Amino acid sequence: MNFLIVDLNITLNGHKLGFVQEMVNYLVLHHAESEHQFHFLVNEQVEVAKSNCIHIHLAEYSYSEKFKTLKGLKKYSEQWKYIKLKSVQNDIEKVVLMEFDLYQAAIGQDKATDFDISGIWFRPYFRQTSVGLSFINKLLFSFKKLQKKILLKTALRNKQLKRIMILNDQLTVDAMNEATESKRFDYLADPVFDYPCYKLENIREKYEIEEDKIIFLIFGYIDDRKNVTNILKAIELLPKNIQKQISLLVIGKTAESYTETLKKAIIHYTSESQLIVRDDFVDNCEMEALFAQTDLVLRMNVNYFASSGIIGLSAKHNKPSIVSDYGILADLTEQYELGKLADPLNPTRISELMKDFVKNRSNWKIDGSAYYKKHNTEAYVEGLLKL
To answer: Measuring CA to CA, how many Å separate 151 from each of 58, 74, 145?
Structure first.
């Protein structure tokens, strides 16, 4: 079988490159003598040891530059044409899209292709509901959800679309298979990778955090969904003596659309806690260090219903989390006993949980090993490619 694994939208301010790199590393170790051929079509360079079955195709400069000038459906339509071209050139039998969401319209318009198609659907709409929105925004939400349903229905017209994988969410898989009267939706474990970090740097030393401080961590791409303002309000509600014990780290590149909101929230933040904000992408090894050395992970995203790698990193390092009380992350947190749930729009409830953690840390200990074992690199790659 000739596979073409595609990600033409890797940016170096996120961890998408790491996903592809870890797949390559795994295949080199475990399928070096495979009868399969694994072709990777990417827009950033991926390192690979010498292998007869793994081939990296870096998008040609002219195509990459063309894609940069386009937006929306036009951009992904042109990328799909390029994917088909590379498939023909390399006798591809199965295309695996690392982000199926982008190509639904293009796939549907094709109606049939010379290769089987599968992909990861990162933003399934089944669980999505309007939370804390105004009347107008609820209408917009309903309209966008309808658009997503139409896009998916369009993609399903292509009979070569064989598998649409949903991360960590069997409920949504079952519901979508029933709703569409098909068996094309499939479960995929959201991976927890083991990055080759031989020595982790000292986070307390790097960020000048005193040894007696309790570290709270907000990590990832910082936008309105990360709910930073309500988390700051929750800390402000804590007694002063507890505030003094906390160091809050907000680590990750801030979205341009959220920069002003975050800046205002920080200016008006009145607390005895230490607040450290790093508006920057951090590499895999610093990410590992942050999760290994933090005390409590804050993952109370607003209007977010899908899976997240944050829960896996927390489980890997046995760090408890406070998680939004809806969506697949809430289900997984309860199923694997990985932390507590809170309404992300209720600073009082968040504050109560923070206070309990500081005063009763021994009651918050978790064992994330069961989750970690079921979501390792093997589960992800073997599930993705069905080898």
So the answer is: 29, 14, 10
Going from the C-alpha of 147 to that of each of 100, 262, 362, the distances in angstroms are 16, 30, 47
Cβ 152 vs Cβ 197: under 8 Å: no
Give the pLDDT confidence of 204-249 residue by residue, as tens digits.
Answer: 999 999 999 999 999 999 999 999 999 999 999 999 999 999 999 9
Residues 205-228: b if buried by 16+ CB within 10 A, e if exposed: eeeebeeebbbbbbbbebbebbbb
Q: Partners of 7 in the beta sheet?
A: 42
**pTM of this structure:** 0.91
- As a 3-state breakdown, the chain gives helix, strand, coil percent values, each rounded to 5, of 45, 20, 40
What is the rounded distance in angstroms from the CA atom of residue 136 to the CA atom of residue 287?
38
Question: Is 321 within 8 Å of 338 (Cβ atoms)?
Answer: yes
Tell me phi and psi for residue 212, to 5 degrees: -90, 0
The encoded tokens of residue 345 equal 């729009």
Per-residue pLDDT band at 13 (split at 50, 70, 90): low
Quick one: tokens of 343? Answer: 């309404």
Residue 277 tokens read as: 């904000």
Rounded distance between C-alpha atoms, residue 312 and residue 368, angstroms: 8
Among the listed residues 249, 366, 385, the one whose alpha carbon sits nearest the alpha carbon of residue 312: 366
Of residues 325, 386, 322, 332, the one with CA closest to residue 171:
332
Tokens of 224: 């309105």
Helix boundaries (H) for the chain: 16-30, 61-68, 72-89, 104-110, 135-155, 170-179, 203-206, 228-236, 240-243, 256-267, 284-293, 309-316, 328-335, 347-359, 369-374, 377-385
Strands 246-251 and 321-324: unpaired
- Report the amino acid identity of residue 61: Y
Closest CA to 274 of 319, 220, 209, 357: 209
Closest by CA to 82, choosing from 99, 104, 67, is 67
Tokens of 348: 């009082």
